[in-house]
Every structure is written in structure tokens, then in C-alpha cells.
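SUBJECT: protein chain
CONTENTS: sequence, C-alpha cells:
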Amino acid sequence: MKKIIVPTDFSPAALNAVNYAADLALAIHAEIHLLHIYQIPISVTETPLVFISVEELRDNAEKKLAKLKKDLEHITSGKLEIQTESRLGDLTDELENYCNTVQPFVVVMGTRGHSAVEKALFGSNALSVIRHLT
């Protein structure tokens, strides 16, 4: 069966990508893999400060993924097979590792639509992934 990976940060742009991926999956009889990759937020000061524990980050990610999966199952009347996974690490590296494991048909990812200047100065997760993944 074809697999569609949908990385999500639970933003409106990511939710739009999830909905698009669901429509695509229904059309081509594919399963969806919702993937959330989280990082430990660290304050950039003389002494790095961690504001939240890894366990809290993981629990929060898994709760949000479970809700997103439930909502998606409701919207699609249970017609889709949906997998969820949360991982700690760098977005591009972890997504590449997950792709190597799952061997997806496609990765569907949202972007916030920043201006060209913002993308040039700050980059974009989606652009980084596009440059890095095959």
C-alpha cells in the first residue's frame, strides 16, 4: 500500500497539509503517517536553560497526534489507515530517517508562505526538507 508522510507542527498550515494529504490518500488508496518532530526549547543565554522536560514534550506531542488522528478518522468516516509517530530531534534528519524506514509515495508538508526575503534570511523548514530529501 502507498504511504503518505505528513510532518506536522499542528499549525494552520500543517493542518491544511493534513487535509490535502487525506484527500490524496482517499483518491489513491494510501495510508497516512502523521509525524511530529519536536526539539527541546533552550534559551540562548550564557547558561543554556531548558524550560520543559523531554517527557512533557513527548506526552504533549502524542496527545496532539492522537487528537489529530481522531479528527481525521471522523472527517474521513474511518476510511483511512492512519499511523502516528512523534520523535525528538532535528526535523530534516528525523524526517529523512523516517522516510528511509517507511519508504513513502510522497511527503506532504505545509509552509507558512513567508515572503522571499524572509525565506532568504531565515530559511524555511519546508525548503530545507525539499533540498535535503530525495
User: Anything to note?
Assistant: The chain has one domain: 2-132. The mean pLDDT is 84. The first helix runs from residue 12 to 28. The first strand starts at residue 2 and ends at 7.
